[in-house]
Design brief:
Elements lengths: L2 H13 L13 H16 L2 H6 L4 H5 L1 H26 L1
Helix pairs in contact: 1-5, 2-5
Length: about 90
Amino acid sequence: MSNQEDYQAKLATITAIAAEEVKSPTIPIDVYLQEAENLYHWSQDDQAQLTGAGLDWTLVEDLPTRAGALREAQSLWFKKRFTREAAEK
């Protein structure tokens, strides 16, 4: 899927998050995305141990889609932010 398709696939889930549950990132988004993708790949070899310890594997399987949705959301936010700033100048 493309980032745009990932975003559309997750949009209902994203918008269902209550405003008081939304948290600001504590690390840069590009670092967050890379770490999520690293975890996805690293976890593949350890699936049996991770699921045996109670990890819901569907969360791991969903990481690439979530990362794509985040990448698209970040791009849309940048576009809106910098278009508005340019217009204000």
